[in-house]
């Protein structure tokens, strides 16, 4: 039995019952990482000793007759933008090379409390800015389905870890698609919860009004289990909602019959790859055969989403990244003539080209004289985009569409042209701007064998419908692991 091929819920069950020891899982996990990670580059750092100590303590707990948590012995990889006590956390940036945080992010603490294993930190685009994991300061991550291709981004390392079954689940963060798009590119399930569902305490901030932490897993039920563990009110994040997590795992058994699924015409337009379209339409037909009612809907402001996002996200980033100044933590370039020189030299050395581009753009759109023309206008368009969804949801229970316009692209294909990179977020940005829950679930692969993702967007806080539909889609397409 290959323990890492097992779904999250099965593995936890076996460990809870004592049929498999957590230490066996930990050993299998590192053995798998050792034969695959050199080729894939999913992990930036591994916590071998800590994980094996943790596994042993889980096994001892069971031996004492204590009940184990919901993720007993399940290895969960962590995006490197989630801070971890005593473990290097870089957010994919030279700025934080070697930085060891003094505390755990709330989601990390919740995983530990649920008896998950935390084998390591995953590769990502620098400060989560990118769609391919190529802006990482520590080298790109590769797509386990085809090592010449990108795993998507910015949470590419977490997606690749799950696709190659180095871990059955992982956490990522999604600001404009960074969980859903890599999930689509690597054939895994990826969930961005409703904004405010999951604490951002200890998530290194990119754009705070958009950032959400969420799970990757090899199957829909596994993603539901992980989300149940990490969701819920946290007093240390003022935007965290005081709403208890749902029973999403149970929703996976609900079936899709009777649900009205909205198909937005704007998401099936120019730029959509023909094979992606065919796979997504096939899944829609299958849902219809399962008893769903298909409703055409329109989201007319979709075409402004990219411009809106890249104004708002860069504005917030320019402010959030001001803290990296060489004084408090992270890199520092010395000798410096004076404080201003220290700031300049440190930031010039520590940040990569994409991060600098975003800081420049964001500072520009917030500057006096430009604020009204860009930032304020983008805020208004954001409201219109949210209103589009609210109107569509009067006619349907969830929206289904492609997650990304193409399957995984080749490494290097878009690095020279930031705009073409930004275009790969075209279908994920609108739900982010509207703060809605959204998931990517694998549908029929392309002829090349590359995975294709179907996106499901539901009403605010209605993750239940999203999971019910996701599980229904998955029933037609059993989870596949990349052969490596
Ligand atoms: N690709 C988008 C960007 O570059 C989204 C990234 C994200 O969700 N963190 O900003």
Question: Descriptors for this entry?
Answer:
484 residues, alpha/beta, Amidase signature (AS) enzymes, eleven-stranded mixed β-sheet, binds glutamine
Mind explaining what this structure looks like?
With 484 residues, this protein is an alpha/beta fold. The protein has a domain at 3-256 and 438-443 and 453-474: Amidase signature (AS) domain (Amidase signature (AS) enzymes, Alpha-Beta Complex), CATH 3.90.1300.10. Helices cover 38% and strands 11% of the residues. The protein has helices at residues 8-16, 22-40, 48-63, 106-113, 156-163, 180-186, 220-230, 248-251, 274-289, 305-320, 339-350, 353-366, 372-392, 418-423, 429-433, 463-475, and strands at residues 43-46, 76-79, 120-122, 169-174, 189-192, 212-217, 260-264, 293-297, 398-402, 438-442, 453-458. It has an 11-stranded mixed beta sheet, with helices on both faces. Helix 10 (305-320) crosses helix 13 (372-392). The longest helix is centred in the C-terminal third of the chain and has 21 residues, at 372-392. It is globular and about 65 Å long. The chain starts with 7 loop residues before the first helix and ends in a 9-residue tail after the last helix. The mean pLDDT is 97. Residues 128-131, 154, 174-178, 206, 313, 425 line the site of glutamine.
């Amino acid at each position: 039995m290959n323990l890492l091929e097992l779904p999250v819920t099965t593995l936890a069950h076996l460990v809870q019952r004592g049929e498999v020891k957590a230490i066996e899982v930990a050993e299998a996990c590192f053995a798998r990482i050792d034969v695959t990670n050199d080729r894939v580059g999913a992990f930036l750092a591994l916590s071998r000793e800590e994980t094996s100590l943790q596994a042993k303590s889980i096994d001892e707990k069971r031996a004492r007759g204590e009940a184990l948590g919901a993720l007993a012995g399940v290895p969960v990889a962590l995006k490197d933008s989630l801070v971890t006590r005593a473990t290097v956390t870089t957010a994919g940036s030279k700025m934080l090379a070697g930085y060891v945080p003094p505390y755990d992010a709330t989601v990390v603490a919740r995983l530990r409390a649920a008896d998950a294993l935390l084998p390591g930190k995953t590769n990502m685009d620098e400060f989560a800015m990118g769609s391919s994991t190529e802006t990482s300061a520590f080298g790109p991550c590769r797509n386990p389905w085809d090592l010449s291709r990108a795993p998507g981004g910015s949470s590419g390392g977490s997606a690749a870890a799950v696709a190659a079954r180095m871990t059955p689940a992982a956490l990522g963060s999604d600001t404009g698609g960074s969980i859903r798009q890599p999930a689509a590119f690597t054939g895994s399930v990826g969930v961005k919860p409703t904004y405010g569902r999951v604490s951002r305490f200890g998530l290194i901030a990119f754009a705070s009004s958009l950032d959400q932490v969420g799970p990757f897993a090899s199957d829909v039920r596994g993603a539901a289990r992980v989300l149940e563990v990490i969701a819920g009110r946290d007093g240390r994040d003022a935007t965290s909602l005081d709403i208890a997590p749902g029973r999403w795992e149970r929703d996976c058994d609900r079936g899709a019959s009777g649900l009205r699924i909205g198909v937005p015409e704007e998401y099936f337009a120019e730029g959509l790859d023909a094979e992606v379209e065919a796979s997504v339409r096939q899944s829609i037909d299958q849902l219809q055969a399962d008893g769903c009612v298909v409703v055409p809907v329109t989201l007319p402001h979709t075409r402004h989403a990219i411009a809106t996002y890249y104004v708002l996200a860069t504005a917030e980033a320019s402010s959030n990244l001001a803290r990296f100044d060489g004084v408090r933590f992270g890199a520092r370039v010395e000798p410096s003539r004076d404080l201003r020189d220290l700031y300049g030299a440190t930031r010039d050395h520590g940040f990569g080209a994409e991060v600098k581009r975003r800081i420049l753009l964001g500072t520009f759109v917030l500057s006096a004289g430009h604020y009204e023309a860009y930032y304020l206008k983008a805020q208004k368009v954001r409201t219109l985009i949210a209103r589009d969804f609210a109107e569509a949801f009067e006619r349907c229970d969830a929206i289904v569409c492609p997650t990304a316009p193409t399957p995984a692209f080749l490494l290097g294909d878009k690095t020279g042209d930031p705009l073409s990179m930004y275009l790969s977020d075209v279908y994920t940005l609108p739900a982010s701007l509207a703060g809605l829950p959204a998931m990517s679930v694998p549908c029929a692969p392309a002829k090349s064998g590359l995975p294709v993702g179907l996106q499901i967007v539901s009403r605010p806080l209605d993750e239940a419908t999203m999971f019910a539909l996701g599980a229904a889609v998955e029933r037609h397409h059993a989870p596949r692991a990349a052969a490596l």
